[in-house]
DNA sequence: GCTGGCGTTGACGCCCGGGGGAAGGTTTAC
DNA sequence: GTAAACCTTCCCCCGGGCGTCAACGCCAGC
C-alpha cells in the first residue's frame, strides 16, 4: 500500500504521514522506485495514533503505544510505558482542571463583589426615584 | 513619570508599555522631548491590566475595565461592559473545564480497561507459577 | 565634552505543535 | 501522452505577548 491509500484509509493526509515518518513515529519501508510502502500493521499503528490524537495526546505521547503495538502486543496500551502515559495524562488533566477551577472561583469572587457594589450603588440611587414615582 | 519608572512601579517592562500603547490600551501623553509622560492614574490603569492578566484575561478583554476606570468610575468593573466580560470569562472557563473533564473520563476509561486487561493476563499466567511454588 | 543611562521608532524572533502549500522533479496508470 | 500520484526540500502559519537588537536622540554628572 502506498502513502495515498494509507492516508485515505486512516482519514488523514499524506503530509501528516510524511511528518510522522520524519519524527520516527511511523517509518516506512521503501519500494524499488523510492515510494513509501505500508502494510496493514502500519494502518493499525496509524489508527492508534489518530485515536490518541483525538483524546488530546501529543504525537510524542503516542510513541509508547505505537512501539507497544510494534513489539507485538495485542493493544497499544498493553505495555507499562503506555499505562504510565495514561497516568501522567490523567494527572495533567486533573491539575489543569484544578487550576481552571481556582481561576474560576477567583473571577466569580470578583464578579460577585462588583455586582454587589453595583446593587448597593443602585440602592442609594433608585429609592428616591421610586418615591418620586409613588407621589 | 516616564516609562521606566512606571514599568518598575507596576512590575512590568518598558517594552510591554509600548506594546499596550500600540494597542491603544494605554496611550501616553508626550513631553516636549518626545518622551512618554504618565501620571498616577495611568499607574492605576496599568495595575488593573496586570491584575486581569494574572487572572488569565487577554489584553483585549482588559479594555472595558481600563475604559471604565478612565471614564471616572471607582473600579474597573463598575461598568456593565466589564461585568459582561466577567460573565463571558466564567462561561468560557466552565466550558473548558467541562471539556477537560469529558476527556479525563474517557482517558480514565481507557486506562481502567487496559489495567483490567493486564490483570486478567497476569491471572492466567501467575497461578501456575504459584502452584509450582506450593509443590 | 564625553560617557553612560534612559528614551525613541522599527523590525525581526520566538514559542508551540502539527502540519499546509508550493516548487521542481520522477514514476505510474489509463 | 498526459494526468495523477509520488518524491524531496523549503518556507509558512496560527496567536499572544512580548524579547531583542539596531540605530539614533536627549540629558545629567564629572
Describe this structure in words.
The structure is a homodimer of 135-residue chains. The first copy, chain A, has a two-stranded antiparallel sheet. The first copy, chain A, is elongated. In chain A, α3 packs antiparallel against α4. Chain A has 135 residues and is mainly alpha-helical. The first copy, chain A, contains five helices and two strands. In chain A, β1 and β2 form a beta hairpin. At the A-B interface, α5 of A face α5 of B. Chain A binds a DNA duplex (30 and 30 nucleotides) through α2.
Strand order of the largest sheet of chain A: 1-2
For the largest interface in this structure, which chains are involved and how many residues does each contribute? Answer: A-B, 30 and 30 residues
Secondary-structure-derived class of chain A: mainly alpha
- Roughly what is the average pLDDT of chain A, rounded to an integer? 91
User: What does the radius of gyration of chain A come to?
Assistant: 28 Å
Residue fraction in strands of chain A: under 5%
Helix content of chain A: over 70%
Describe the oligomeric state of these chains in a short phrase.
Answer: homodimer
Compute the number of helices of chain A.
Answer: 5
Instruction: Count every beta strand of chain A, where a strand is a DSSP E run of 2 or more residues.
Output: 2
The largest sheet of chain A is: 2 strands, antiparallel
H/E element string of chain A? HHEEHHH
Distance between the termini of chain A: 88 Å
* Global geometry of chain A: elongated
In the predicted model, the low-confidence regions of chain A spanning at least 5 consecutive residues are: 129-135
